[in-house]
Amino acid sequence: MPYLTLDQTIGNTPLFQLQRVAGADNARRGNVILGKLEGNNPAGSVKDRPALSMIRRAQERGQIKPGDVLIEATSGNTGIALAMAAAILGYRMVLIMPEDLSIERAQTMKAFGADLILTPKAGGMEYARDLAEQMQREGKGLMLDQFANPDNPRVHYETTGPEIWRDTEGRITHFVSAMGTTGTITGVSRYLKEQNPEVQVVGAQPEEGSRIPGIRKWPQEYLPKIYEPQRVDRLEYVSQAAAEAMARRLAREEGLFCGISAAGACEVALRLAREVENATIVFIVCDRGDRYLSTGVFPA
């Protein structure tokens, strides 16, 4: 029998139904709330999909060849996924990351063989992105640029969206995703609305002053070029405290150990469920909770 290579295990992640957290009221009103377990991907997040897509398609276009140096600014999950994909396909990966992000992420990137450059906390992801562009101008490698690379939303249009439509048998009424690079929400929205324009697409963003890994409200000059605002019907803002409390609750009450941005998307899904009846709401569980242990979000 033929065996899979590691890259072939990316995608086709399952949907699971919330039980205790959803509550009896949603059951009475006929609402179904489903999480898509992207932490089941081999490097542990939804970013495995675009990471492999960006490298493989750049290779197919002849822009890069195995052995070349690739550069990316990352807040964590994309960096881990790119480090894994680079290891699979034979590239050297240089990742640029703000110094205040969790130590588990940095250690995982290094485990995959990536070189890591830490930038000052005060500069945030904006400074990291600027440095990546500077290094590319200086000829130090090719920047994949998840924020502007169409191969990011494209893979969600080709895989994530169709999987959700298939696994809900076309019954999905609402799709919720945290918004970081916006690749997931842009690509999935495009696919779902081609199947049914009535599907509501809702983006989770952090409230003013909240710092939630994986969710960003970008300054206008740094807004991802791949973002298509017309594909998002509604924005919902989540506080850091609410997202962290939901992450702990999901672990205790559902046995779902997920990251903070995934919990923020779940918070928004539950908020939507209070407004509707007979709805099928899908949110992206974008990663696992083990890469947040050093942040203090989960009790020691």
Automatic annotation (TrEMBL):
Name the family.
Answer: Belongs to the cysteine synthase/cystathionine beta-synthase family.
Q: Which InterPro entries match?
A: Cys_synth, Cys_Synth/Cystath_Beta-Synth, CysM, P-phosphate_BS, TrpB-like_PALP, TrpB-like_PALP_sf
Q: Which cofactor does it need?
A: pyridoxal 5'-phosphate
Q: Which PANTHER family match?
A: CYSTATHIONINE BETA-SYNTHASE
The name this protein goes by in its record: Cysteine synthase
Q: Where does pyridoxal 5'-phosphate bind?
A: N77, G180, T181, T182, G183, T184, S261
Q: Which residues carry this modification: N6-(pyridoxal phosphate)lysine?
A: K47
Q: Which organism is it from?
A: Thiomonas delicata
Q: Which gene encodes it?
A: cysM
One Gene Ontology MF term: hydrolase activity
Alphabetically list the UniProt keywords.
Amino-acid biosynthesis, Cysteine biosynthesis, Hydrolase, Pyridoxal phosphate, Transferase
Enzyme Commission code(s) on record: 2.5.1.47
Using the record's annotation, list all stretches that form the Tryptophan synthase beta chain-like PALP domain: 7-287
| Keyword Cell inner membrane annotated | no
Q: Write down the Gene3D superfamilies for this protein, in alphabetical order.
A: 3.40.50.1100
